[in-house]
Automatic annotation (TrEMBL):
[4Fe-4S] cluster 2 binds at residues 197, 213, 240, 243. One of its GO terms (molecular function) is epoxyqueuosine reductase activity. Its EC number is 1.17.99.6. Its cofactor is cob(II)alamin; [4Fe-4S] cluster. This is Epoxyqueuosine reductase.
């Protein structure tokens, strides 16, 4: 098999076998336009309290400064669109990526297996690092550069078959592999995502002001929630999927087959009352392996209190 298939095709096949939804390859090089865009975003203060985004700017736009000997960026996607939604329509809502096990662990485990496969079967001198949303790497930029989708007007990566309910990871490695070509943006004249945002965080196409973003405010923001958004969260208690729900590319996307993303059996059945009366012990039970732990019990309670009677 190794004689008839290229290394790139073998890596592609192994990634799919491991459960990734798609994979793409790009040359590890400086991203000048992304550097300009990132600087403008930071200069405008659109990163809100995420001051860590100001750090390591050079590394964010040049993987050679992050990983010694970097030649190729291998980008992977993992579909997280759930098979089932929250049952109670009036219950506080949870971003879909947080339904099951924390994706950082799921993706990193698979990436490590992919890295080990490449080193053992294809390139014994392999060196590099693996990432998923936890280091100065522009995940969406690399995924778009490798042809896995385009950056939509809501600033999410959109895959033609999977939509935007995808999580992104990378291997940045010293192995040379033929890069894939980017694909054309396909949002056309649609502005459904911009029109749908209740806090007007999408201040224009491809422009997100995190200061107004429900996802930022309910997860990253550590202070009291701004009173100006009173009644505008549309019942989102952790994260927000409004701009994704509005996107036509997500309407027919298939659900995930990743078993690790299966939620706690009680989670999707929680009523409004059960959410608001949740104890810390119940929080620990429901979200033991979930990304929701990031906001802690106190943070979730703050969010739920903000939603009360709105």
């Amino acid at each position: 098999m190794h004689k008839t298939l290229s290394a790139k095709q073998l890596i592609h096949n192994e990634a799919l076998r491991l459960g990734f939804s798609d994979i793409g390859f790009s040359k590890a090089e400086h991203l000048p336009q992304n550097e300009v865009n990132l600087k403008n975003w930071l200069d405008n203060g659109f990163h809100a309290g995420m001051t860590y985004m100001e750090n390591h700017l050079e590394k964010r736009v040049n993987p050679a400064l992050l990983v010694d000997g970097a030649v190729t960026v291998v980008s992977v996607l993992l579909n997280y669109k759930p098979k089932h939604e929250q049952a109670q329509s009036d219950a506080p809502k949870l971003a879909r990526y947080a339904y099951g096990k924390d994706y950082h662990f799921v993706i990193k485990d698979k990436l490590q297996l992919l890295f080990d496969y490449i080193k053992k079967e294809l390139y014994p001198n392999l060196e590099g690092r693996l990432f998923t949303d936890s280091a100065p790497v522009l995940d969406r930029a690399w995924a778009a550069k490798s042809g896995l989708g385009w950056i939509g007007k809501n600033t999410n990566l959109i895959h033609k078959k999977l939509g935007s309910y995808v999580l992104i990871g990378e291997l940045i490695i010293n192995m040379e592999l033929e890069p894939d070509n980017p694909i054309n943006e396909a949002c056309g004249g649609c502005t459904r995502c911009i029109d749908a945002c209740p806090t007007k965080a999408l201040i224009g196409p491809y422009q997100l002001d995190s200061n107004k973003c429900i996802s930022y405010l309910t997860i990253e923001h550590r202070e009291e929630l701004p009173e100006e958004f009173n009644g505008k969260f549309e019942n989102w208690a952790f994260g927000c999927d409004i701009c994704q729900e509005a996107c036509p590319w997500n309407w027919k996307a298939r659900p995930t087959s990743e078993e690790e993303f299966t939620p706690h059996p009680d989670l999707l059945q929680l009523s409004k009352e059960e959410w608001h009366n949740m104890s810390e012990d119940r929080f620990r039970e429901l979200f033991r392996k979930s990304a929701v732990k990031r906001t802690k019990y106190s943070g979730l309670k703050r969010n739920l209190d903000f939603l009360k009677d709105k």
